[in-house]
């Protein structure tokens, strides 16, 4: 209030002043002016100061504000605002996920969702919903991970203990091994000239850290060291693991699939393809985009010759406005 004299505890800040005026003013406070000079939320008040509060309709209370304010009145109002925001975020995120799951004709099981939350590192469901509401977690990604957890929990597509190591090769049995006359790979103790093929479960390319897996036919399947199936292979069939490293480029190009997720903005697909077309050494083989509820997700298949170009491409795609996630499949 203009011209009023107010008392605050020692160390009180602009934010204390804002909440003293009104909860809405405090919740939307972005800073202020003390004696006509712009100051931040954290600026402390002093006796005789003339204070003006600056607000923005897009501002929201944050948990760290509790460390800025000194008055119990301001702290109580912040806690209340955070609780209200948490409830609103939870309802919004829950409704959004239920709608997305329903569109995919997937029924949500509480036990599976609980396992998913633990897998993603969430101790509280409220924090999970907050990440969804803040668009830090993509619903399509959640659905994909949910299905993985569901399959695991219900023992779907899981190898039995009696199954052989060939279940971990993940390729069509008719797939022929590739003759390496140019010795692009050195397999275990500098052995060269061995027949090998690149595993389809992780699609290694030149430059990736790799290892070999000996098949019953005596050939070698090459996997990336971060292959999703590597831990199980090492655990159950460690005796069939051999060291491998690249020694030169034998292939001109490798096919790599990238998963891209983002806002379904006008021209977003064109902007993505432009990034790829600008690099003469990268060829786009195919693109498959699906959009829904203002978001898009899709797979890009590109041809390139090593992982340094792949990493650079991913970095560039992530800078495209509207793109939220770019991951290698």
TrEMBL record:
It comes from the Bacteria. Residues 257-329 form the ACT domain. Residues 1-55 form the TGS domain. One of its GO terms (cellular component) is plasma membrane. SUPFAM superfamilies: ACT-like, TGS-like. Belongs to the RelA/SpoT family. PANTHER family: GTP PYROPHOSPHOKINASE, GUANOSINE-3',5'-BIS DIPHOSPHATE 3'-PYROPHOSPHOHYDROLASE. This is Bifunctional (P)ppGpp synthetase/guanosine-3',5'-bis(Diphosphate) 3'-pyrophosphohydrolase. It comes from Prevotella histicola.
């Amino acid at each position: 209030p203009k011209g009023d004299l107010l008392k605050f505890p020692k160390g009180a800040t602009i934010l204390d002043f804002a909440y003293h005026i009104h909860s809405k003013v405090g919740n939307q406070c972005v800073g202020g002016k003390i004696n006509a000079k712009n100051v931040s939320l954290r600026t402390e008040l002093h006796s005789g100061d003339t204070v003006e509060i600056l607000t923005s309709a897009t501002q929201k209370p944050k948990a760290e504000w509790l460390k800025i304010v000194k008055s119990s009145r301001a702290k109580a109002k912040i806690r209340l605002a955070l609780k209200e925001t948490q409830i609103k975020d939870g309802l919004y995120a829950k409704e959004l996920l239920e709608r997305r799951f329903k569109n995919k004709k997937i029924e949500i099981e509480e036990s599976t969702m609980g396992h998913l939350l633990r897998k993603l590192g969430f101790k509280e469901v409220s924090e999970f919903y907050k990440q969804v509401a803040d668009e830090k977690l993509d619903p399509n990604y959640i659905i994909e991970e949910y299905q993985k957890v569901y399959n695991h929990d219900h023992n779907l597509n899981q190898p039995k203990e009696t199954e052989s190591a060939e279940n971990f090769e993940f390729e069509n049995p008719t797939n022929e091994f590739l003759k390496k006359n140019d010795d692009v790979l050195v397999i275990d103790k500098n052995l060269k000239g061995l027949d090998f093929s690149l595993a389809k479960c992780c699609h290694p390319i030149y430059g990736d850290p790799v290892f070999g897996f000996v098949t019953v036919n005596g050939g070698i399947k090459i996997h990336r060291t971060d292959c999703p199936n590597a831990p199980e292979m090492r655990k159950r069939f460690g005796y069939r693991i051999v060291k491998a490293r690249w020694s030169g480029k034998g292939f001109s190009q490798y096919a790599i699939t990238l998963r891209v997720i983002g806002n379904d903005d006008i021209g977003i697909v064109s902007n993505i393809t432009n990034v790829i077309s600008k690099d003469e050494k990268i060829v786009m083989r195919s693109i498959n985009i699906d959009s829904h509820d203002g978001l898009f997700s899709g797979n890009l298949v590109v041809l390139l010759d090593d992982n340094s170009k792949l990493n650079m491409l991913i970095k560039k795609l992530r800078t495209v406005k509207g793109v939220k996630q770019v991951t290698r499949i």
